[in-house]
Amino acid sequence: MNELINIMKALAEPVRLRAWYALREGELCVCQLITVLGLAPSTVSKHLSILHQAGLVQSRQAGKWVYYRLPRTHEKGYVDNIQRELFNVLDEDVALNEFNKKVMQVRKGNMEELCRTITRKRR
Amino acid sequence: MNELINIMKALAEPVRLRAWYALREGELCVCQLITVLGLAPSTVSKHLSILHQAGLVQSRQAGKWVYYRLPRTHEKGYVDNIQRELFNVLDEDVALNEFNKKVMQVRKGNMEELCRTITRKRR
DNA sequence: TACTCATTTCGTCTTTTAACGAAATGTATA
DNA sequence: TATACATTTCGTTAAAAGACGAAATGAGTA
User: Fold this and answer.
1) Is residue B80 part of a domain?
2) What's the structural domain count of chain A?
3) The domain containing residue B62 runs over which residues?
4) CATH of the domain at B86
5) Residue A56 · residue A20 · CB < 8 Å
6) Can you give the pLDDT at residue A123?
7) Å between CA of B83 and C1' of C30
8) Residues in chain A closer than 8 A to B11 (CB atoms)
9) pLDDT tens, B4-25?
């Protein structure tokens, strides 16, 4: 039950649900997630670690950057089912569709530039 | 999205998940829920109101007693799907099976007596 | 009407959660 | 080796959530 509770807790938070949903169409660098979520790097990092701990996302390091993605398939099969069901619901959500536009923008943009924007903000 | 978040938040809490699961096999009086959950009446009442607000349970009053139950079917169909999926997982859960034994005990027991036990505790 | 009693509401306390900035980490590059 | 810089960790603060008991509510009964 605790495992399920962790998964539910992880997704029962708007920021994390958005972050998770943003990965639906492929991996994203942390700086891209920081940008679309509009929160401080440390805050986003924490959220991602909670999603990671729940087994809902995976990460890989590539040079300076860390990319997060959805697992192709989850260890426990039921998580796949829940994910499918939730995505079906969220795909119809107006607010999330709006958010998704931002994600698509960021996917197209230049990542080096994005990171520099974030670094500049921090001073 | 907010609706979904409310549903997830409601179920992402062990006490509420147990309460909700306890109703799987039919309605229960509040005093029965208080007993199986082992918490103060006011605490249980609050949890039930959160489940109710999320649309996950319904209630009816019968004399002094208030009974809570699962809706036969949810307004939004996707909730039925999620519920089915979660129940499938929870049915396999060892801790919940243990809990379910208590629920079955309480279902068989005398309700008047149960309530009196609770009232006695309060003094 | 007055009383009993199951449940809910209210006020309070404690714990948990989410946000941030500063500092630490660790990789790539000058 | 020193530096730059993306990300994470740590410490702090503010807000939310969960627990309880006391008091309020509201339905049945004497």
Assistant:
1) yes
2) 1
3) 2-116
4) 1.10.10.10
5) yes
6) 64
7) 58
8) 8, 12
9) 999 999 999 999 999 999 999 9
